[in-house]
Structure formats: structure tokens, C-alpha cells
């Protein structure tokens, strides 16, 4: 069981130059300078398959927390 906390293990939070707008694990915006993307359903399907919780392009929640 993973405890819910503010700590996110994703490396994007520790980088100074992040190539994506949002963190795929917690959905937090890690780079404000990158504009929100207009993603297609297909792109989201690929991210879901990669087990991303959130879309790094637009911040959409891809997986439901149960
Ligand atoms: Zn995160
Ligand atoms: Zn998206």
C-alpha cells in the first residue's frame, strides 16, 4: 500500500528543465511555460497504456482512483 502524500517520486519534479507540462503521476504542473496541449483520444489511449495517471500534455486525469 502506498500512502498518499505530497511526495511524488517522478523525476520531473526534481529537474530544472522539464520537457513536459504536467507530471504524469500526480498531475501537478511542473513546467508552466509549456502551453496546454490539445490532445486526441488516441494520444490519451497510448498514455493510459503506458500507465500514466495524468496526461502530461493537458493534465487530464486518465485513470480513476479507486
Ligand atoms: Zn508528480
Ligand atoms: Zn492530454
Key words describing this protein structure:
66 residues, little secondary structure, 1 helix, binds zinc ion
Give a description of the structure:
The structure is a single chain. This protein has 66 residues and is low in regular secondary structure. It has one domain (1-66). It is 14% helix and 0% strand. The chain contains 1 helix and no strands. It has one helix spanning 41-49. It is globular. The protein starts with 40 loop residues before the first helix and ends in a 17-residue tail after the last helix. The relative contact order is 0.22. The model has no long low-confidence stretch (mean pLDDT 90). Bound molecules: zinc ion (2 copies).
Short description:
The protein is low in regular secondary structure and 66 residues long.
Structural class: little secondary structure
Bound molecules: zinc ion
* Average residue-wise pLDDT: 90
- Helix fraction? 10-25%
Shape call: globular
H/E series: H
Q: How many alpha or pi helices? A: 1
Domains (count): 1
Overall radius of gyration? 12 Å
Strand content: under 5%
DSSP E strands, number: 0
* Largest sheet properties: none
Head-to-tail CA distance between termini? 13 Å
Low-confidence stretches: none
Amino acid at each position: 500500500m502506498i500512502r498518499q502524500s505530497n511526495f511524488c517520486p517522478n523525476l520531473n519534479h526534481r529537474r530544472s528543465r522539464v520537457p513536459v507540462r504536467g507530471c504524469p503521476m500526480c498531475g501537478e504542473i511542473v513546467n508552466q511555460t509549456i502551453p496546454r496541449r490539445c490532445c486526441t483520444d488516441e494520444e490519451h489511449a497510448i498514455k493510459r497504456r503506458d500507465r500514466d495517471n495524468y496526461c502530461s500534455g493537458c493534465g487530464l486525469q486518465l485513470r480513476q482512483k479507486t
